[in-house]
Amino acid sequence: MSCLMLNSCFKDEAPNTECDILDAWVGDEWASHFNQPTDMRISDVPSGESTIVFTVRWNDSIPEMPVFFNLTPGATIEPASGSVHDFTKGPVTYTVTSEDGKWQRTYKVAFRGTIIPEKNYHFEHAELNDKGKFQVWYEMPSEGVRNDIWATGNEGYNIARPNAKVEDYPSVADANGYKGNCVKLTTCATGSWGRTFKKPIAAGNLFLGKFNSRYALTNTLMCTEMGIPFIKIPLKLTGYYKYKPGEIFTDKDNKEVPGRVDEPNIYSVLYLNHDANGESVVLHGDDVLSSPLIVRKAIVTQLPATDVWTPFEMIFEGTTPIDEELLKMGGYSLALVFSSSKTGDTFEGAVGSTLYIDEIEFTYQEEGQP
């Protein structure tokens, strides 16, 4: 009787409705095309991610190759996992169908060389995300290949305020830049959801890297995956900003802190993206300024409130020797962060604090220069 009851339970279990790619990887026989063995596998693909990008050697030609996938239980994928495709013509689109056959998601899988850093970033390119909820930024370098290198916390804000208008998100594009378009970052209230989870504000931010919404309810500092592989040594960064602090500064309990005035934050670090054991490393909000893997660091210490476009500058400091061969192989990553509230990562700040950013310019160390 027990066996019959157990069998009945199995039969009555509803088919899975999830249709996600969990992991993607390339076989070991293609290792010569990658900088590091860990670059051949992308694990724990964020649930909100619809693009999967493998990074190959910066001067490498991309061959036809198979990509393999681990999916949510019962899901299927088309084209099939392990099928061979020509990625030189651009991303290949894969469709994942849930076990019950009622739900589908599409992913674009691409290969690109280690990004050759641009000297200038103008923030001219922004578009709605694939669900039409909020804006995302990307770069179109001189060679004409789109680079999705920028991320924001907009996806996290969407969890708190799913019905918010595009223009009411913390990170939005603005047409009134120093030149052309710019980025407008605003500290916003997260409503009843935020008060319940002691996350009453969301600072507007923009950073090099990815946002992983998987940790939005448990460990928000882990949501920000800071940095992209970089093959140049930064010496200096300049740009233009405007800033106005909000009127009332509050703590994580949404209580006013009398006399405290909000501040913006701009900083950058260059760090080793593999540890001593060869394991891939990405910095997050909890260690992006403190990790022992950091070799260069730059922070803007003074950003006074101003309603006119004002220049800023920060110098990269640090004396740790940098391995130029490892640098060419993409062994270092650069994190760059802009935020409308300096302590917004701990949900302290002033609603309405607004930071505008435009016309970022890097100065890099020339090859062979000490």
Layout of secondary structure:
Elements: H1 2-12, E1 21-25, E2 41-42, E3 51-56, E4 65-66, E5 68-71, E6 76-78, E7 84-85, E8 92-97, E9 104-113, E10 120-121, E11 126-128, E12 135-137, E13 150-151, H2 154-160, E14 171-174, E15 182-186, E16 188-189, H3 191-196, E17 201-202, E18 205-211, E19 224-226, E20 228-230, E21 234-244, E22 249-250, E23 265-272, E24 294-299, E25 306-315, H4 324-328, E26 332-339, E27 349-350, E28 354-364
Parallel strand pairs: 3-9
Antiparallel strand pairs: 1-2, 1-5, 4-7, 6-8, 8-9, 10-28, 11-12, 13-18, 14-15, 15-28, 16-17, 18-19, 18-26, 20-26, 21-25, 21-28, 22-27, 23-24, 23-26
For this entry, give a set of tags.
370 residues; mainly beta; 7-stranded antiparallel beta sheet; 6-stranded antiparallel beta sheet; 28 strands; disordered N terminus
Quick overview of this protein structure:
The chain is mostly beta strands. The protein has helices at residues 2-12, 154-160, 191-196, 324-328; strands at residues 21-25, 41-42, 51-56, 65-66, 68-71, 76-78, 84-85, 92-97, 104-113, 120-121, 126-128, 135-137, 150-151, 171-174, 182-186, 188-189, 201-202, 205-211, 224-226, 228-230, 234-244, 249-250, 265-272, 294-299, 306-315, 332-339, 349-350, 354-364.
Structure description:
It is a single chain. With 370 residues, the chain is mostly beta strands. The chain has four helices and 28 strands. The strands form eight sheets. Strands 13, 18, 19, 20, 23, 24 and 26 form a seven-stranded antiparallel β-sheet that branches. β11 and β12 form a beta hairpin. The longest helix is centred in the N-terminal third of the chain and has 11 residues, at 2-12.
